[in-house]
Amino acid sequence: MNHQPGPMTELVRQRVLAVYAQVEAAIAAARPHCQASGRCCRFTEYGHTLFLSHFEAEILLEAAPDYPRPATRDGCPFQVNGLCTVRAIRPLGCRIYFCDPNYQEPMSVIAEQAVAALKRIAEEFDTGWYYAPLHDFLNAAPVRSTADAAHSMTSPAARIALPVVVAPAAEQACAPASL
Ligand code: SF4
User: Fold this and answer.
1) CA 114 – CA 133 distance, rounded (Å)
2) What mean pLDDT value characterizes the chain?
3) Residue nearest to atom 4 of ligand 1 (CA)
4) Are 109 and 22 in contact (CB under 8 A)?
């Protein structure tokens, strides 16, 4: 597991999306409260960093809208007016993180289990493993053609089937991020 990760096979993608579904189920069971502030996506301002795996980056960036470069560590370019514009394809950290003080312990457990599950997939399929801050992936991603960008802008996540978990209304307005 020491080579640079390449694109996911369909089987690996399905295994990764199954981890997403497990995470969503665990969060639904924990029932964290979200104040819909969107502050969790403004990383420097609130003192955290969103790390993600190459699996999550691929799912995010293949369908995300274009964004200004260079990306910085300060915040996520996909947060617009306090809302996440890539909610269906957001990384696991975005799904797991809530600032609810009563949820901090389960949050740590869910996060550890999710990363461990992704690492097991990487080992099982010998995909390589890369885990880095969001801006690293954003700056390393190839700039897409205008046609590709237009496709993603009009139909985010149209090319992938993601697990759907309906969150309470307050959480849908929120843009939780970062581990
Ligand atoms: S939830 Fe994640 S992907 Fe969405 S705006 Fe926040 S940091 Fe970006």
Assistant:
1) 16
2) 84
3) 84
4) no
pLDDT for 6: 84
- Is pLDDT of 166 > 60? no
Q: Which residue is closest in CA terms to ligand 1's atom 1? A: 175
DSSP state letters, 71-134: --TT--TTEETTEETTGGG--HHHHH----GGGHHHHHHHHHHHHHHHHHHHHHHT----EEEH
Q: Shortest CA distance to 79 belongs to which of 94, 93, 69? A: 94
161 pLDDT above the threshold of 50 = no
The amino acid at residue 120 is: R
Report the pocket of ligand 1 as residue ranges, CB < 6 Å. 41, 50, 76, 78-79, 84, 86, 90, 94, 175-177
For a substitution probing ligand 1, which of 24, 41, 62, 172 has the most ligand atoms within 8 Å of its CB? 41
* All structural domains of the chain with their residue ranges: 10-154+165-173
pLDDT tens per residue across span 54-111: 999 999 999 999 999 999 999 999 999 889 999 999 999 999 999 899 999 999 999 9
The tokens describing 72, both together, are: 């910085």
pLDDT at 36 over 60: yes
Whether the Cβ atoms of residue 8 and residue 55 lie closer than 8 Å to each other: yes
